Amino acid sequence: MQWKTAEYSGWGRALRARGTLARPEKLSALSAALQGRGPAIGNRRSYGDGPIHDGGAAIDMTRMDRLLSFDAETGVVEAEAGITIAELLRVFAHKGWMPAVMPGTGFATLGGCIANDVHGKNHHNAGSFGQHVLAVTLMTDNGPREVTLQTNRGLFRATMGGQGQTGAILSAKLQLKAIPGQRMRVKETRISDFDSFLAAFDTSEAEYTVGWIDATKRGKRLGRGILEEGTLAEGGRPGPVKRSLSVPLDAPHFALSWPVVKLFNAFYISRIPDTSRKRTRPLEDFFFPLDRIHDWNRLYGKRGFHQFQCVVPLDKGPELKAILTTIARAGIASPLAVLKKMGPGRAGHLSFPMAGYTLAVDFPARAKVPAIFARLEQQVLDAGGRLYFAKDALAHPDSIAAMYPELADWRAEVAKADPEGHLETDLVRRLKLRSAT
């Protein structure tokens, strides 16, 4: 195993790092690499500076991606941290199992899903990813250590959503979900405005729901969009595997200009008839809609982009509407705006979810975005909500303690697990997660 100097970034590409990277394939190589060198990272699908360590070393875990065991009767799988969620779906869907919670990209690694306690389109009834983790094995100074909620509740909860600060995640045992087939029946419905969207979420009985929002609209059409409701169905994978596309170069500045975004959004919503549309889709098309376009982040140009994702409590719908109004008035949002309803499920001290509504919007990295983000951050704070570390690149540390009331408990566990701070990432330092000073 060799250390190589490289420039790299998270998925948003707005914040970058230069440092040394190692990609171990075996436990012995990983043990040597971790000797006080730096944090473990995955496929760097977190958007901001969570997966980078500028000026230092980091261990890329993506080659440690083996399946270790599987119980076909119970659906319990053990795998190394570098395996991707898409690979777990590919291997087990035809056997009648899939991960119970999946994020919006299949390129996320098992370790990354744990470190961010990710959520999916079924959070309102299935909770967060970490709630389906039965055990996690961490690398410690004394070698691998398996941790469960029963054997060490504090360390387990500090690891779920803990940004990799309790130790490098080597592997995990995951409870998969039994499924009837490899198909998803999807109903797509036009929604006229924001209030109608929240009402549609509240009355939907679907297991999987997600909304696409046209973030350019104001006034009576504020929050118009498309609601997708999904139901798992019997049958093999429908249709041939579609060929993936790729964005070969950084798009020019005008590619996602405001007029272009408005035209795209108008076209996108026009595809759905007034009476709604029903169709059958492969599982990966429903869960990972953007994965068919490799390197789609290059559409934002060489300066990259930021994502703002917040969640506010269920009774704060008017406050979320005001947040969306701020975004629409800013005139810089991209086509990728997503609204979901969340339940109370969360597995860790720093887990993002709460019972409420979550909104995610991309912004091309422009000079005025930090000021816009600061206004949005204050609105979220006033609403009793929180920001998502997996997407963040611009939040201020003063907001975090109020957004995450279990921060002190997390800090206590991390101080025991990594007293020298070897595992700190740029996000951890920027937000002062490990220390108030």
Please outline what is shown here.
This protein has 437 residues and is of the alpha+beta class. 26% of the residues lie in helices and 27% in strands. The chain has 3 domains: 4-60; 67-179, 2-Layer Sandwich (Uridine Diphospho-n-acetylenolpyruvylglucosamine Reductase, domain 3), CATH 3.30.465.10; 183-401, Alpha-Beta Plaits.
Report what the structure shows.
With 437 residues, the protein is an alpha+beta fold. It has three domains: 57 residues; 113 residues, Uridine Diphospho-n-acetylenolpyruvylglucosamine Reductase, domain 3 (2-Layer Sandwich); 219 residues, 2-Layer Sandwich (Alpha-Beta Plaits), CATH 3.30.70.2520. It is built from 13 helices and 20 strands. The strands form four sheets. The protein has an eight-stranded antiparallel β-sheet with strand order 15-11-13-12-18-19-17-20. Strands 5, 6, 7, 8, 9 and 10 form a six-stranded antiparallel β-sheet that branches. It has a four-stranded mixed β-sheet with strand order 1-2-4-3, with no helix packed on it. α5 crosses α12 and α9 runs antiparallel to α10. The chain is globular and about 60 Å long. The model has no long low-confidence stretch (mean pLDDT 95).
